[in-house]
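Feature request, filed as a ticket because there's no other form

It would be nice if the structure record came with a short human-readable summary line next to the tokens. Right now we just get the raw output. Example of a typical job, pasted below so the devs can see what we mean:
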Amino acid sequence: MKRTAPLSAAVAVSLAASLLFTSGTASASQGHDGSHTERDLYGTKAPYVPQGSPGGYQRAPKGYVPVFTENVARHGSRAMTDSADGAAVLALVRTAQDQGRLTNLGARLGPQVQSLLDAASALGYGGLSARGAQEHRQTALRMEQRLPSLFARIAARHEPVVVETSGVPRAVASADAFTAALVAGDPALADLVEPPVTDKNLLYFHKQPQNADYQAYVKSDPQLAEVLARIDGDPRTAEEAHRVVARLFRADFAAALSTEQQISFARSLYQLYSAAPDLSVEAPTVDLTPFLDRRDARWFAYLDDAEEFYQKGPAFSGRTITYKMADVLLDDLLAQAEAKAAGTRDNGAVLRFTHAEEIEPLAALMGLPASTAPAEPDRPYTYRNNPWRGAEVSPMAANIQWDLFRNTPGKDRPATYLVRMLYNEKGTAFKWSCKPVAKHSYFYELDELKRCLTRS
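Raw output as currently delivered:
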């Protein structure tokens, strides 16, 4: 549940109360609305869409063949982690219903929310949804299709496929879906896929004791608290919340709600709106889009993106607290590739399954697209001044993949190794300080990555 004030007071509505409010004079596009897509309306809850195309991948330089692959993937689409937002929305809707103060549109909201909650409860709050499992199954099959010779090599040489997770059930279920699809695509892998092992220091590092400074930052950092309060306090938050409430409740009922109650209701409704697509199989008849128009959804998506940006992404210029802890993951990516190249490990693949709290810091640490620009302290993050979007950086099932290629050693020269990175299955350059093998190439010498990515 995001930064919303309690709705309990809203249930005991005082019709004598008045709301001092001047109706929305500013467009939701002013000041925050930069480039966006339909998926951006859902923030980091956006279902996964691969960004690469089957025929759009660069070929490896002549003589190089794939010998290893590794990834870091967020769990797939899931149910909400609890019922708090749904309960808050239903409480106010039912109070208005009892008083006959719902609009025709508002009268349709309660059953939709209840259906969504029923589906989430039946699945298990926070559990991987059918859509989430399918996201990982399809990603695995596309991995095999991109690298057929690698998986044939893994099977022929009986190389292990190592699987690591955070230990959280939705991450474990994502790993199971992914590896089951690999085996379905190539049954010869059945005995090579190892049981998943839990590594919280690697894949749930934001909660570990060694990152107590980060936990303190999220909980009580004054600079963080100030900027989020400033963003939340933008007058457009109240304006958009009032627009939402006015469409669902009769005017006198809406006027009796305080500004804080209206905002809390609207933000809780947005949380349900953004979560509903992830449960499209379990709740196929639920459609919350009529209750939040695009303008309103875009504003509340921005508020959520701002929180993600400052808590898990590039955050403040001159501070690394949100992403320096991801160095353990970057170090492991390098170490696994180096070990394969050195012949000290015979793994054919290393597959890792984790969370947005790990993907977003890793993206910032690596300088991946849209994660390169922190905000200046006196210029808060907006959609106009920063390209960071939760739906692009860390949607459900987001993934970063490294493929290792090797050429044939010559009589007087050893084999050399190249790495290609895919981000959400799209060929992606490493940060500017890393030099590819040729201009505009997505292939980098492994030694070059060791140079430009290793911390001094």
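Something like this underneath would help us a lot:
Confidence is low (pLDDT under 50) at residues 3-33.
The radius of gyration is 24 Å.
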